[in-house]
Amino acid sequence: WSFEGAVFGITTIPGNIATIDIGGGSTEISFGSIDRNGGVWNSGQSIDIGAVRIKERFLLQQPRVAEARAYIREQLTRIVLPETDLRALIAVAGTPTSLAAMKYKLETFDAKRVDGAVIRKFEIEALTEEMLSVTSQELIQRYPAVSPARADILPAGALILEEALGALELDSIRVSTQGVRYGILVRELRRMK
């Protein structure tokens, strides 16, 4: 349903795509395509790496960033990739939407500006390095649109996103403000038809 929500309303990406939903305890990656009738989900997997888990295991007190990256990378090897090349990665939830707000230096969160934003891997890498070099409070001061409730786990989510791009051999994400709730809405609309 996260896949369905992420692709809802998108008609401009031909070919195979992936979606990623980084949660606190797990990350869901789905594969499919988009046609004129909407998203076509093919497969998906849930991996036990989430922003809270990575933060608690590797980024508390003395951050062990290299270890975190290696662990995330190893977990991502469990993904069964589609046989054909992927055209895009659509990312939902707090990590990508926060990174988009940071990219645009928004004073307050603006879903209209964030939705559809394209963030290149090098931009995510730069933002991740910056986040890892400051406290959560400093991050919020620099980027007021970042939720105080998310600031401390955001670097961990960004590490997951970076490594996922590498595993999928893609160099950018497209941000969607729509996620699992939109997917469930799509499901209910289909039932009503």
Structural class: alpha/beta
H-E order = HEEEHHEHHEHHHEH
Count every helix, treating DSSP H or I runs of 4 or more residues as helices: 9
Helix share bin = 40-55%
Please state the CA-atom Rg, rounded to the nearest Å. Answer: 16 Å
Strand line-up in the sheet with most strands: 3-2-1-4-6-5
- Biggest sheet layout: 6 strands, mixed
Give the CA-CA distance, first to last residue.
18 Å
- Uncertain stretches: none
Coarse shape: globular
β-sheet strand percentage: 15-25%
Mean pLDDT: 90
**Total beta strands:** 6
Notable characteristics:
21% strand, 193 residues, alpha/beta, 6-stranded mixed sheet, 9 helices
Task: Summarize the structure in words.
The chain is globular, with a radius of gyration of 16 Å. The protein has nine helices and six strands; from the N terminus they run αβββααβααβαααβα. The chain has helices at residues 2-7, 51-59, 65-76, 94-103, 111-114, 121-132, 136-142, 154-168, 180-192; strands spanning 16-22, 27-35, 38-47, 86-92, 118-120, 172-175. By secondary structure, the chain is an alpha/beta fold. The model has no long low-confidence stretch (mean pLDDT 90). The longest helix has 15 residues, at 154-168. 46% of the residues lie in helices and 21% in strands.
